[in-house]
Fold this sequence. Notes:
The chain is mainly alpha-helical.
Amino acid sequence: MAGPAYVAKHPTTVPTAVSTGWVDDADLVDRARKGDSSAFGELVDRHRLRVYRAALAVLRSHADAEDAAQDAFIAAYRHLARFRGDSAFRTWLLAIAWRKAITRRRHMTSIWRRMNGRRSASGSADQEMTEVASTDRTPERLADDHELRRQIRHAIIALTPVLRDTLLLTQSGDYTYEEISAIVGAPVGTIKWRVSEARRLVRRQLRAQGYADVG
């Protein structure tokens, strides 16, 4: 997905594009502000995977995460003038993506509840995350592994959104605690506590299902 595809409208006057492979984010932002669409395209290419994964941690749907990522890049492009450089551009961008994903999840939850009062957003995601084909004829050990993964998904889904979101961001391996703190707007100490508490609850749930050696 090319970077400019994320942008709703380009300036009418665009300076001659130059190579951006060696340029840091701050210079690319400056060029993008001056109308260099290729500079913003390079920013998209550099950060789209992390932006997508941040949205996926919230939404747990590939299609919805892609939509939230696109919304984030469009918003970032439109509001480049608001980026003051107090944090890294990536951190600023990830915070935008996080807010877009949270807003999308709230909207989707409201729709699901209106459609069927007995069905919740977590229930829908649970079906998507844990579905296993009934024709699975893998060896016994692989079947056991599938069951363990299914139980882990159930345990994660059962967490509160605050704990679940933070755990999934951490587990992705893409973000430091400091970045997660900036993304979700909570102190680093709080982030570390949430991760620890989420892991404790997941382990407790797995032990209750008979997995006594889960760490």
